Amino acid sequence: MQNRSIQIVTILALLAITGIVVLQIFWFRKAFDVNEKEFDQNVFTALQRVGEQILTINNQQIPNSGLVNQLSGNYFVVSVNGEIDTKALESLLKAEFKNRGLLMDFEYGVYDCNHQKLVYGNYVSFTASEKERITHELPQWKNDLYYFSVNFPDKGSQLTGSLGIWLFSSAVLLLVVLFFAFALITILRQKQLSQIQKDFVNNMTHEFKTPVSTILVTSKLLNRSEILQQTSSVVQYSNLIQQEALRLKNQVERVLQVAVWDEKKMKYQFSEIDLNIFLRNSILGLEQLTIDKGGAIEHELLAVFSMIIGDAMHLSNVIFNLVDNAVKYNEAIPRILISTRNAGQFVELIVKDNGIGIVKKNRRRIFDRFYRVPTGDVHDVKGFGLGLYYVKTVMKDHNGNVRIISSPGEGTEVILAFPLLKI
User: Fold this and answer.
1) Rounded Cα distance, 351 and 404, in Å
2) How far is CA 213 from CA 25, 217, 243, 244, 423, in A?
3) 271-419 domain in CATH 3.40.50.300?
4) What is the fold of 164-262?
5) Please, are residues 223 and 241 in contact by the beta-carbon 8 Å criterion?
6) Are 392 and 344 in contact (CB under 8 A)?
7) Is 72 helix (H, G, I), strand (E, B) or coil?
8) Is residue 349 within 8 Å of 279, Cβ to Cβ?
9) pLDDT tens readout for residues 178-236
10) Which of 2, 110, 326, 368 could be a cystine partner for 353, CB 3.0 to 4.6 Å?
11) pTM of the predicted protein model
12) Where in the chain are the domains?
């Protein structure tokens, strides 16, 4: 699937999912509002009935205006302007709420405004085992001498819990959204893997084609009678075939080595290594990599403590890969600085170059297997994208870590951190 098609499908899918989520939220809110309105109406009716019964008990006239006022979403007050029997009040509240199916826990209070105090308050639960709850301090309402108030502290959560079908549909929608996100991430990841595979095949074809072509051409030359009569030419062409065959063999072994890394079968021979001394000896053999381009390798081995536990062969390969990259990805005369420094319980090995650098979007993936910084169809830099993957694997097996600092046109700095040998 082309990039443009994937982008269009992704955008349309995101818009569709967003629209469905918005509609779900809208209708859920509408259902909640309807449920809340019905609940408030039932509470109004029940409290009006309780207020009228209290007035009847007190031999007071029932006013034409309503007795109930809703001060907030879950707080109601009922004006009675007379003394209230708290036992009768609680009994009436329970009976009226049960008659109307309002089996929601509530708390109530009776206020005497003459003395500015709460006369009585209690928490009422309709559950089988009544929970101990701290009664909230109900706010005062100064419009009457006597009134009682009712508060539903769990109104929001219980109304939401009563919307069973809506909660179920929301849960299903959430699963759909999560599945869509997982599918989208999988598709994009597969696309990246497909691109990496394509680049790897292109690079491998290029790397294998050159030595094979050289061997074929040279072998044809050796079949010519005039060449066979020239001993020096036969030796020259035979050596060329041998070199290209060894090159081809090394390329095959590098690819097969990946299976060994994946299966954790890399073998190490750990020993105590003085990193400073090890680097001095290694640099002598690495200078040949820069000679062809007229470059040089400098070193500043400043670490005071440099003893580590490591495998000399694999560490040599790691340093070789880093220096080789510094030379290959360099359009100027290579200038490479290898240095060491102490950092807490670690000693750091830094390989810094003046190469082309790496853009930010590629830095996070350069340690992935087979990944190479995109260069289009140009294959002027050889390799399979295994060098830094190998570096990361070896550092992990040495209980160390690797990080990169790089900017386009400003070179690259690779920092390897090894745990110091504990004496």
Assistant:
1) 10
2) 66, 6, 13, 9, 55
3) no
4) Helix Hairpins (1.10.287)
5) no
6) no
7) strand
8) yes
9) 888 888 788 777 777 776 666 666 666 656 766 777 788 778 777 877 777 787 877 88
10) 326
11) 0.48
12) 3-161, 164-262, 271-419
